[in-house]
Amino acid sequence: MDPPNTAQDIVRCDLCETPVPPMCCDICHINLCKACVGEHLSDDSRDHKVVPFHKRGSTINYPKCQKHSPKTCELQCKHCNIPICASCVSSGDHEHHKKVDILKILTKKKELIEKDLQELKKFIHPKFQQAASEIPAQKVGVKQHSLKLTAALNKQGEALHKEINSLIQRKQSEIEAMDEQHLAAITTQEDVINKTLHEIKQVILDLQKLLDSDDVCLVSEYTSRNEEFRSLPAQFQVTLPTFSPQEINSEQLYQQLGSLSQLVITYPLIDEAARTTEEHGSLKKTPGAVSSPPARPLSDKPRILTDIPTGYDYLYHVSCLSDEEIWTSGGNEIMKLYNLKGELMKSVQTKSGDIPRDIAVTRSGGLVYADPKDSSINLVSGTQIQTLITLRGWTCRGLCCTSTGDLLVTMTSDDDKQTKVVRYSGSTEKQTIQWDEKGKPLYSSGYLHKYLSENRNLDICVADNDASAVVVVSAAGKLRFRYTGPPSTSGESFYPYSITTDSQANILMSDNNHRIHIIDQDGLFLRFIHNCGLQRPWGLCVDSRDNLFVAEVKTGKVKKIMYYK
């Protein structure tokens, strides 16, 4: 529940903070008291329209025409998807194009905004609020369950200790029994020896008497017993017991302790309804919540499903906005959005008028492009172009958007002697990947393009054309492998152009031999895509259904290819 309004919520003049200002500027969207109106109107760097506060929002702020300043645009060209003024219409640039009153577009957009606002307030926000409110209980549940597991483990440990102590006592009893048996044997032998010893003592006394006696008869009857006493009683042989400890197998003991089932966290696969919702921007899939797709066999005969002419003399890049729309760029300053019927849906010109170095689509559906003229990376959102990053001393050679919303950029130094991959979150540099574990460069120097793609396992794959290799590193920047072509084609030249990855974590790259390589996430060559009518393939991208889009340099066509069965 929202907290009640306080005195701090009162509307104030944006210049002097006087409470309850009676006026506002409908162009600048600021509140004004009467004393500050003159000061605000004195700023002639832009237009102003001061109206009573209760009439705020009544002024239509028409966009300025970029070609015929300072005229305003009251129409929208549906074909070019840009606002135009009366001079644009009379110039003939938009002849035969459908034109719509910009107020109608504004009305429809506001209706859509109102609809989205109500959906956010009534359904989406409460749903997420409910989910957020359940998180603390879930965390408490984790701790409580952990305590239960620990108690069960300790109980089993106590049982094992008790059983071990019982076994030790059994062994001790066996030792004591053997001791009793051994002592009994010794006692028996002791009795025999003592008895004989007693007899020997008596014989000695008798012999002493005989020696002192003069009785001839008594002495003559003497019979010697020395032979009888010369040998000791039979001695028993004993083999003492020994203890041979069994080697302790910690793994067996660990298994004996009991088994602990694995924690299983299942993320639902996106169905078609959810996919539609995601494409329209209502709900986004949680970063990292990626369900492993079932393994799919590659097709022995890839086939072209769609052939889309783009009108470029030279076509270099293609990037999927959705399963039904693709962004393209080529040998001029215009970036074009097409649907699968080949219809031009939108076109955008780079701010500098230069050819874009590379393009990519963000998770939220924005278009990012690299402008070589000022080494900038820009975001196109609607009709607005915002500069995200300006490189200093470096030039962009390729870019891609990651599953977590970061931006990966390959760049070379202005003297073409160093190359690195940099990860950005917005405009903030988060990570630099340049050297291997021995301090050697991961990537070749040189001015040629170095397109890249993030794999489903978060590996970063760079098509290093100068090095004639695809360089794959982990998300942490550790080198995993280099791919220089399959062994069967070791005699052929290999210059990778563009690169992409699919839901199976396979890596696809176009090369200079009119074909596309497919390797798995560990660099094992799987097969080629060729002999299906491809002509000098360059740019690559894959949609959510693992259909491959290929930009052909010379024909200016984008071909949609099905390469899984």
User: What fraction strand?
Assistant: 25-35%
Mean pLDDT: 86
Q: Structural class per helix/strand content?
A: alpha+beta
Number of strands: 30
* CATH architectural group of the largest domain: 6 Propeller
CATH fold label of the largest domain: Neuraminidase
**What is the topology, as strand order, of the major beta sheet?**
7-30-29-28
Helix count from the secondary structure assignment: 7
Measured as a percent range, the helix fraction is: 25-40%
Which spans of ≥5 residues are poorly predicted at pLDDT below 50? 1-7, 267-291
CA-CA gap between termini: 53 Å
Largest sheet properties = 4 strands, antiparallel
Counted up, domains total 3
Q: Any overview of this molecule?
A:
The protein has 565 residues and is of the alpha+beta class. It folds into three domains: 9-95, no CATH class; 108-240 and 249-257, no CATH class; 295-564, Neuraminidase (6 Propeller), CATH 2.120.10.30. 27% of the residues lie in helices and 28% in strands. The strands form eight sheets. Strands 7-30-29-28 form a four-stranded antiparallel sheet, with no helix packed on it. It has a four-stranded antiparallel sheet with strand order 8-9-10-11, with no helix packed on it. A four-stranded antiparallel sheet has the order 12-13-14-15, with no helix packed on it.
